[in-house]
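Lab notebook, design round three. We kept the backbone fixed and only want residue identities now. Task for the bench partner: fill in a sequence for the structure below.
Input structure tokens:
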């Protein structure tokens, strides 16, 4: 048997052979506490009832466990040593109706995959939670680990005394055992268990239904006890209730999974996971210090994204991971749609245009880009496909679809989709058929252009003026990369802008369908000559915006005068894409940020600009200009920090940015003064989280030694503090420190997933390029072994995080190419990660050289 990496062909064969009637899963997690030596395991007993339409056939069940003590098939005891290979249980001579019982010892996880065990350093308490997507339920109980073999689940859990246990359904405790109500038919990867001494708060959502009945949904929210002082359950419940109202109004399908718990858990690999009835989130969404409105908006968006999954993904699930977009693209779009339509974050589409789409544009220009409906050969492919294409491009395409078919037709299609396929599995055609019914549009043609081809188009305005200075013709030129030449139909708005009383404002707008290489927009003929033409105004489609010469010149002088915040965000996004494409020098982007960022009203856009300009300096600016650029950014950051309104979120954003670009003695003196209280900036509260932000650059530049992180940890002896300390320690500018961090990451597997991430972040310092140079060769010598020895999650962290991108030279590029050439038979997922990093490096070198894309 081929082991852990289930293929699509194997899944199809098994789905054609089997149907599953139900699971009874019994877990004994009392071993989670205590001091016993050796590898920590827990007992897992699974009873799996299933039918086989070819009696006498063979198949396999999935289980990743250190050992199996007993396997029984239809009352016949099987020898675990003969049928279990560590990843699969061979099942021969199946009957028409079957019962499989597996008694196993499963391992607690420190990688965030399976049943993760976390010990809180603050009070020694142990917390457990599960995380399975795409295929880690098999680390906790025996199953058929593929999304189209849905079944009802009944869980029972024996837990340490004093603990509370939660699962997908409502639970009751009796005689030391927690028993949970049977679930609706769901996929294995969205089952869930959370257990421990969590701080738990409850509420109730109530809604009157059209039939006169009342829908009542118990709500819960939980976090570690150490985070309870910072927890804001009232805001979590507010967004939850607003979201449930919004989706009930639009989907005409009541929430189908009973209760709605939300758990904020430690050392979480993802943003969140849509387990029905028990959504899990990374606990960083519990804010220990002051954060900006953008952080609250991001949390609300994630809450709504996961809630949308209750319908798109949980109620109706893709058949295989090829159609992952059927849940992730829809949830990403619906999260923003509900954010704007139901909550206080009415500018959510600005964040979507500026942040989410930036992720998509990058992913869609990598050599690993793929259609939204992807070709997923196996589980490793699936793991890597939770990317900017599946999420953000897919959501952008759906936004374009709503403009194409109309919102009413789109939502009516969703309602029919839920009714026809509830508790079932679907493919692309199932959704397209209902949308064709409700819209009258040819969805096959739309899907071929938008879902089944890869790459991003560029749209550029072409303006011709008559003798009177008016527009005689305005056209939109569409281009595509040679590697992905598809020219798509775009529903776009074109906005014309002029300076009026010092403000850059729109005075004309037209919506049109752009198709082919050149589309004339007759509605704008005769308009006054524009100073800025914004293609894709209002962000209706998915494309890279380009500017004509007049528009670019206007932005260079008046970008900050653009009054509409969405239009301004779109311009910033376009300028960033031009920087990445070597069409705008990094120094020019730095100049634009230094002159106009302080006028940005949207805090999320401002924080995105800070991230982009930092990246421009580190990756896209020529080496000889970096010190100059760094000094410019540090001076501007300090200027705007001092000028910001005291106590404002803009002040906080500038303070964080200043710390990230600090590079001189006076910068470090100010940061140290803010830490020890000898310096003060009016209104700036230096809370514990900000203290760590200020400390890291001091450590990374050798201004503070290892005693400073130790002293800070003494002030903040918490799980969060430990992660910050580990990051700071790995950031020290010492060859010995780098060697130690490398050994912890590459030669040892003792670090948890969270500490792996923290160590990588500290290790990879832009100011330490020379110290890191020796590790480029070591990286390429190590990654294939790492991929084979570590869990895929940890391997992904290391392969992505340690790629020598700061060694931005043709030699490093050649080394990556040499590795790819010499390792053509390496795991495709590993090759994809290296290929993506190599492409990012090549892009950096082109930008540094000022070459054309």
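Proposed sequence:
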């Amino acid at each position: 048997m081929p082991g852990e990496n289930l293929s699509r062909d194997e899944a199809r064969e098994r789905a054609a052979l089997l149907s599953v009637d139900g699971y009874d899963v019994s877990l004994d997690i009392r071993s989670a506490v205590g001091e016993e030596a050796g590898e920590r395991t827990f007992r897992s007993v699974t009873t799996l009832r299933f039918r086989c339409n070819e009696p006498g056939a063979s198949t396999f069940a999935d289980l990743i466990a250190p050992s199996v003590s007993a396997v029984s098939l239809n009352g016949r005891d099987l020898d675990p040593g003969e049928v279990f290979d560590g990843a699969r249980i061979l099942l021969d001579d199946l009957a028409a109706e079957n019962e499989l019982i597996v008694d196993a010892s499963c391992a607690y996880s420190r990688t965030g995959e399976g049943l993760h065990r976390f010990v809180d350093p603050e009070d020694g308490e142990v917390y457990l939670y599960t995380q399975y997507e795409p295929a880690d339920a098999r680390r906790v109980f025996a199953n058929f680990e593929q999304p189209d073999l849905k079944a009802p689940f009944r869980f029972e859990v024996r837990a340490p005394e004093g603990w509370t246990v939660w699962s997908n359904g409502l639970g009751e405790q009796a005689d030391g055992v927690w028993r949970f109500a049977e679930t609706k038919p769901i996929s294995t990867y969205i089952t869930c268990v959370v257990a421990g001494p969590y701080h738990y708060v409850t509420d109730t959502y109530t809604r009157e239904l059209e039939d006169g009945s009342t829908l009542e949904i118990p709500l819960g929210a939980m976090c570690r006890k150490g985070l309870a002082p910072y927890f804001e359950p009232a805001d979590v419940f507010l967004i939850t209730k607003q979201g449930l109202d919004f989706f009930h109004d639009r989907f005409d399908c009541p929430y189908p999974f009973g209760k709605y718990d939300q758990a904020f858990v430690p050392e979480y690999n993802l943003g969140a996971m849509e387990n029905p009835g028990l959504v899990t989130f990374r606990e960083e969404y519990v804010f220990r210090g002051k954060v900006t409105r953008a952080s609250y908006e991001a949390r609300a968006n994630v809450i709504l994204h996961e809630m949308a999954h209750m319908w798109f993904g949980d109620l109706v699930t893709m058949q295989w991971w090829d159609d992952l977009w059927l849940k992730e693209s829809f949830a990403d779009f619906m999260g923003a749609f509900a954010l704007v339509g139901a909550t206080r974050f009415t500018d959510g589409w600005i964040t979507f245009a500026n942040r989410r789409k930036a992720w998509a544009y990058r992913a869609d220009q990598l050599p690993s880009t793929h259609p939204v409906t992807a070709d997923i050969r196996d589980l490793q492919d699936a793991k890597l496909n939770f990317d900017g294409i599946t999420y953000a491009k897919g959501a952008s395409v759906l936004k374009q679809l709503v403009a194409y078919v109309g919102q009413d037709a789109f939502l009516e299609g969703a309602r029919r989709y839920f009714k026809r396929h509830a508790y079932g599995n679907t493919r692309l055609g199932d959704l397209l058929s209902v949308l064709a019914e409700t819209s009258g549009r040819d969805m096959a043609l739309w899907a071929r252009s938008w879902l089944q081809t890869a790459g991003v188009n560029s749209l550029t305005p072409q303006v011709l003026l008559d003798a009177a200075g008016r527009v005689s013709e305005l056209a939109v030129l569409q281009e595509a990369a040679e590697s992905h030449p598809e020219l798509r139909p775009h529903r776009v708005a074109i906005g014309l802008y002029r300076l009026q009383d010092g403000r850059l404002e729109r005075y004309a707008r037209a919506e049109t369908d752009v198709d082919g290489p050149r589309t004339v927009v007759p509605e704008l003929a005769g308009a006054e000559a524009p100073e800025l033409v914004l293609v894709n105004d209002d962000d209706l489609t998915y494309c890279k915006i380009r500017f004509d010469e007049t528009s670019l010149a206007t932005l260079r002088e008046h970008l900050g005068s653009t009054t509409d915040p969405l239009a301004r965000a779109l311009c910033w996004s376009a300028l960033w894409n031009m920087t990445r494409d070597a069409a705008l020098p990094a120094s020019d982007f730095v100049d634009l940020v230094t002159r106009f960022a302080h006028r940005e009203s949207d805090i999320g856009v401002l924080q995105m600009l800070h991230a982009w300009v930092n990246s421009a300096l580190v990756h896209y600016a020529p080496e000889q200009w970096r010190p100059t650029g760094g000094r410019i950014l540090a001076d501007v950051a300090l200027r705007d920090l001092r000028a910001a309104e005291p106590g404002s979120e803009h002040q906080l954003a500038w303070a964080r940015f200043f710390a990230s670009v600090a590079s001189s003695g006076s910068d470090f003196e100010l940061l140290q003064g803010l830490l020890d209280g000898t310096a003060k900036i009016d209104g700036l509260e230096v809370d514990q989280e900000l203290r760590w932000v200020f400390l890291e650059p001091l450590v990374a530049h050798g201004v503070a030694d290892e005693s400073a992180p130790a002293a800070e940890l003494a002030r903040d002896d918490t799980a969060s503090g430990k992660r910050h300390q580990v990051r700071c320690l790995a950031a020290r500018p010492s060859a010995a420190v780098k060697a130690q961090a490398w050994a912890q990451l590459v030669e040892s597997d003792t670090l948890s997933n969270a500490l792996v991430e923290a160590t990588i972040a500290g290790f990879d310092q832009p100011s330490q390029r020379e110290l890191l140079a020796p590790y480029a060769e070591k990286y390429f010598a190590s990654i294939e072994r790492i991929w084979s020895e570590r869990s895929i999650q940890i391997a992904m962290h290391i392969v992505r995080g340690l790629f020598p991108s700061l060694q931005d030279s043709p030699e490093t590029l050649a080394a990556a190419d040499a590795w790819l050439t010499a390792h053509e038979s390496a795991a495709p997922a590993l090759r994809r990660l290296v290929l993506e990093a190599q492409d990012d490096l090549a892009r950096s070198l082109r930008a540094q050289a000022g070459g054309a894309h």
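Keep this in mind before ordering anything: The first helix runs from residue 8 to 17.
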